[in-house]
Amino acid sequence: MSTMVTAPASNVIPMRSRSGAPIAAGRLADADLDRWANRLARLLLGRGADAGDRIALAVDPRIESVVADAAVRKIGAIPVTLTDGAATAPGAGFGITTKARLAELDDAGDWLVLDDRSTLQRYLVSSDAPLAVTELRAVC
Description:
Blueprint: E1 4-6, E2 27-29, H1 30-46, E3 54-58, H2 62-74, E4 78-81, E5 94-97, H3 99-102, E6 110-113, H4 117-125
Parallel strand pairs: 3-4, 3-5, 5-6
Antiparallel strand pairs: 1-2
């Protein structure tokens, strides 16, 4: 049985599942979570993320934060959720955020902004297939 991740419908970007059916009231099926996390994991790998890296998460919408956390874990990195008011995460080489949170974050950080147009374009054209071993880098 598939589980669902739930977020308030007003707090997520309306998207469609692979079947073409709208995702109801901010709910995301496991299969969709897996595909979305695969795409985001590929963006992280493209930015040079490696297994063992600490990656800051400053993402509020529930579904986006779950996808970001899953993507970081898929590549073997360590997700570090920023607490309220924190501008950066110690030891994190870069992070994932949204436009709404970017202004409160450290300018020196390297932030992947999920709802930035260029990020969305790269995300939408990346593969949602499972990550291959050849895509992942080993921890030294």
